[in-house]
Amino acid sequence: MNKFRGALNVLPDTRECRVQLYSLLTPSRSRPMKVCWKPHWSRVLHLIRTSEMSISRVFRDSRPATAGVVSSYAINCPSRAARIFSRLSFCSCVTQVKDSLTLKDFTCLVSVTQVKDSLTLKDFTCLVSVTQVKDSLTLKDCTCLVSVTQVKDSLTLKDFTCLVSVTQVKDSLTLKDFTCLVSVTQVKDSLTLKDCTCLVSVTQVKDSLTLKDFTCLVSVTQVKDSLTLKDFTCLVSVTQVKDSLTLKDCTCLVSVTQVKDSLTLKDCTCLVSVTQVKDSLTLKDCTCLVSVTQVKDSLTLKDFTCLVSVTQVKDSLTLKDFTCLVSVTQVKDSLTLKDFTCLVSVTQVKDSLTLKDFTCLVSVTQVKDSLTLKDCTCLVSVTQVKDSLTLKDCTCLVSVTQVKDSLTLKDFTCLVSVTQVKDSLTLKDFTCLVSVTQVKDSLTLKDCTCLVSVTQVKDSLTLKDFTCLVSVTQVKDSLTLKDFTCLVSVTQVKDSLTLKDCTCLVSVTQVKDSLTLKDCTCLVSVTQVKDSLTLKDCTCLVSVTQVKDSLTLKDCTCLVSVTQVKDSLTLKDFTCLVSVTQVKDSLTLKDFICLVSVTQVKDSLTLKDFTCLVSVTQVKDSLTLKDCTCLVSVTQVKDSLTLKDFTCLVSVTQVKDSLTLKDFTCLVSVTQVKDSLTLKDFFLP
Which PANTHER family match (predicted)? Predict the structure, then answer.
């Protein structure tokens, strides 16, 4: 009888219905259980059948003991009803399942709509909504699935933690050991995810998308044929890839736009932007590619360190063991670079350009027939060479203008420009220094390959085994770089900047006190860090804006955006943080996988072993989450919210004082709780 009383959970929460059921089912002194049960059983069934929230005609073709749903056609005796409820944890609503539905050890199913063939759920915790699954849906040991819409053929999820939204998957979707998938939209053929941590958005993938051991994918848009990602850390945006995109052991890809045929990246660290690659782009063991624009046929990069800009390459571009390419513009036929250190600018090469073991080429303009450079260190400018130009074992050529027939230079050395060095300048085994302006005290460069521009270094600058520094501006005290591959821009660093074994730092702006990066792969942008920023074994930091006191990241994989953190932010073993906005006092994340958005946390937010937090808005005092799986939305929690061993919270709105949830499985919606709400081992309110 006590088990059957769980039927009240599926009936409407109205006073009239509750009073009638309790009067029928609750024994009293005047009406003992054995006396009142039989006469009133027909009235109980009649009340269930006639209530507006009754579950009837849902599973006409399948057995209720297997489906785990009470049907008015299935309740024939109290013993059978008790057996049904002993196997059922809770099922809120299931509508229009055509063939069969199997639920085993299932806790909460909020809504399933229009499943055509079959739906199998085993040891599943929370499924909020599944809509229009055509063929089959298989979920095994899954924690939380918020929404799946219009899956045409099949969807397979194994050991899946949180899936927020999947929309219009045409053929199949396979997810294995996946932690968090926020949104997938319009995948035409198939999507395969294995051991993936966080996928924020995938939009309009035509044929297939394969992700293996992938940490964070922020956005993929309009991939026509296929996208393959293996052991990839962070992909911020991919837009309009026509045929295929293959990424293997890549760390950070910030933006890829309009790749027509294919893009292959292997062991690539950072790709900031690729735009309008017509046929194919191949990158192998590349460190940093800042921008590639309008490559018509193909682009091949192998063991490439830094490519700042490539524009309008018509046929092909091949780069092997290349360190730094600042700009290539309008190469008509082909450009081949092998073991090349730095190419600053190449403009309007008509037929071909071959560079072998070349260190630095600043500018080449209007070479009509051919240009051959072998073991040459630096070529600053070549203009209007009519027939041919041959340079062998040359160090630097400052300017060549209007050479009619040929020019040969051997064992030539050059420093292009040094202006206003106050005390001393020491250069040892240095290949190319394009410009140094207003160095106050000293500048020491040892075994450096290419330094494009340094401006207004007040005290000292030390570079050791440095590959490419594009621009450093207004460093007040000191800048130390050791075994650093590519630094594109540093602006207004007040006190100090220390980088050790870092691969790519694209932009740092207005760091007041200090910035320390150790074994950091890619930092795209840091803006207005007031006191200090410490990154250790961090893979990709895309943007940090207005961090007042300190930001500490240890063994973090991907941080996409942090905005207006007032006091401190500490991340340890953190995989993906998409956005944090206006955290007033402190935010502590430990062993956290995916945090999509946190907005306006006044005092503190503590997350430990938490899998997925989609949105937290306006938490006044504190929010503590421990061993939680999925929190979709929390809005306007005034005092405190404590969640322990919590699986899925879809929405909490306007909790005034406190909310305590312990070993809670699924909370779909809580609205306007005035004083307090305590739920212990509860299934669904």
Answer: EXS-RELATED PROTEIN, PTHR34231:SF4
